[in-house]
Amino acid sequence: MIPIQRLGLPEAVTARMTLLTGRIELRDVASGARKKYVDNLWKDEDEVKQELRGVLLKMAPGVLGCCMYCGGFTATDIEHFEPREHDALKTFFWPNHLLVCGPCNSTYKRDWWECDEETGEPLLIDPTREDPFDHLRLDLRECEYLGETDKGRTTVKVLGLNLPERRLVAGRKLARLNIRIVLRDWGRARREEDAKAERHALDVLKGQPFVDVWQALLRQAVLPGAALVMSDEPPEILALLRDEELRATTLIQFPQQPAPAEGT
Questions:
Q1: CA proximity to 239, closest of 252, 223, 222, 251
Q2: Which candidate, 80, 147, 175, 215, has a CA 20 to 30 Å from the CA of 169?
Q3: What are the sequence ranges of the domains in the chain?
Q4: Are strands 136-139 and 144-147 parallel, antiparallel or unpaired?
Q5: How much is the pTM?
Q6: Where are the alpha helices (DSSP H) in 97-167?
């Protein structure tokens, strides 16, 4: 999981979603009318969902548009971070939408929702609102996620990020091997002043699935004890990961400023 920059929606889509939210608010909650109305409305609003999907796809990691949760599989589903079952008024609330893979959406998270009893904060990472690396650490040897906070540990458990049947760990291990090869290619291209080969290597590093492995390597390479953590890597790899030019080009920091709406 990596930080995701939330883009703006076209004004017409925002206006339509505001209108739909107003209609939902008029429906009675106690009788169950609101839930039924929301389910039908979400099902029928194909044009809105198409617009949402298009913007979310631009936000999603990698050239394939990978899942914003697991980062390994192509994202296919519009996910309500806070489920419609919990708050119907967030059905068409743009900050509540993510693009995720089918397993993360339908098999693992589903309508799960829990919050910290003291702070009220959700116990699941929203990569568009916070830096996942504040809560998670990727063990680079085993390629398994370790929760550094309650939110991190809950996220790993709810999404099954280390479960063998998900094969995400295997994918991360392969990604790390591929990164080693591409990183060497980038270093060689720079030494030979081959700008085209440099750009190609960077495109691969930034566009591959499991880009979270690449981001974890970049972050951990400058921490105390990095040489020990990455002792299974050739020394040249650690040196390349610390290269300021490479880091400036590819390191994804948590977005601090909201992106402008499309067309503005």
A1: 222
A2: 80
A3: 168-250
A4: antiparallel
A5: 0.90
A6: 102, 150-159
